[in-house]
Design a protein that fits this description.
By secondary structure, the chain is an alpha+beta fold. It has one domain. The protein has one helix and five strands. It starts with a strand and ends in a 13-residue tail after the last strand. The relative contact order is 0.23.
Length: 79
């Protein structure tokens, strides 16, 4: 199962991060770190098919974590 973490802006000012799966919406978060951490947790539970991605800026999606990578999610992006 793939989990996509995307940044969104609401009403031109409120930034939030959502996690979607291959089958639809999963959850919203107030920070990218929180969204990635949550996505990694559920991807870990999915087992070998679990993968977390973010959209590529000008190309293909970027794989941020795949089942078998260090767990729990050890990375901090910023802040």
């Amino acid at each position: 199962m793939r989990y996509m973490v995307c940044r969104h802006v609401r009403d031109g000012r409120d930034v939030f991060w959502d996690v979607t799966t291959d089958s639809g919406w999963y959850s919203d978060h107030v920070s990218e770190n929180a969204a990635l951490s949550d996505a990694v947790d559920v991807a870990q539970e999915a087992g070998e098919a679990g993968q977390v991605l973010t959209p590529g800026s000008d190309g293909p999606d970027t794989v941020r974590w795949s089942y078998g990578d260090p767990y729990p999610y050890p990375y901090r992006l910023h802040g």
